[in-house]
Specification:
single chain; alpha+beta; 3 helices
């Protein structure tokens, strides 16, 4: 598995993957499509211009297998170095450990104060994030509308502090 920064030339690919992910998330959130049949994501363009955002593609044997979008927005109103805004492993690549490996590698790539938010209705996401953050002593915080946030610190060499 490779984790690669999304280039401007891969912008359309990321957008299409994001749309599939947002559609899948309608199982948990009551989001509607816009007039063109797409799920609005107002910050999409910012991932190509804002230095406080990162967009990554997950690839297996050169094929797109998912993506991760990172930013510095705290759901808890705290100072964070990184927050997982969106994370997706395509269905074909699930249950193979790819998500856990990708999450841990992304944490190691970006040491500092982290937050990961998820809806408790998404049991797979809940398991993934609790396992991925377990080595960093995460604190769990309830949020409105059945969501939770994990807050933790990843050290300079990937170890928990």
């Amino acid at each position: 598995m490779e984790i690669q920064v999304v280039t401007e030339g891969e912008r359309t690919l990321l957008y299409h993957l994001l749309q599939k992910y947002l559609y899948e998330m309608t199982r948990f959130y009551a989001d509607d499509v816009d007039g063109e049949g797409n799920y609005p994501y107002p910050y999409f363009g910012d991932y190509f211009s804002d230095p406080d955002r990162r967009a990554y593609l997950l690839r297996v044997e050169g094929k797109a297998a998912g993506f991760a979008l990172l930013n510095r927005h705290s759901a808890l109103g705290r100072e964070v170095d990184w927050a997982m805004a969106e994370f997706c492993v395509l269905p074909r690549y699930r249950r193979e450990g790819l998500g856990l490996e990708a999450a841990r590698r992304l944490f190691a790539l970006h040491p500092g104060r982290w937050e990961v938010k998820y809806t408790t209705a998404n049991l797979a996401a809940q398991r993934l994030w609790n396992r991925a953050a377990s080595g960093y002593g995460p604190k769990k915080y309830p949020l409105p509308e059945g969501e939770k946030a994990l807050a933790f610190v990843v050290g300079a060499k990937g170890e928990g502090i």
